[in-house]
């Protein structure tokens, strides 16, 4: 059951990434590209977590992927709000 839920969460992250990727292609705004990459990193992290037996969310590799993903979101917000 846990692996099925991890797969569903990963599918949700993947769809969200595709959503933002579509907007990046339409607008060319890097904000959407950073968000798409962040969600795809989250997808990869969830898939890796689902493949682990037993699932260990405190694994440094999984935690590192999340830190990078959230860092991309912060980068996107910073770039969007900086003065030009």
UniProtKB/TrEMBL annotation:
Keywords, ordered alphabetically: Membrane, Transmembrane, Transmembrane helix
Superkingdom to which the source organism belongs: Bacteria
Transmembrane listed as a keyword: yes
Sequence intervals crossing the membrane: 6-24, 31-49, 61-78
InterPro entries: DUF5985
A family per Pfam: DUF5985
Protein name: Uncharacterized protein
Source species of the chain: Ramlibacter monticola
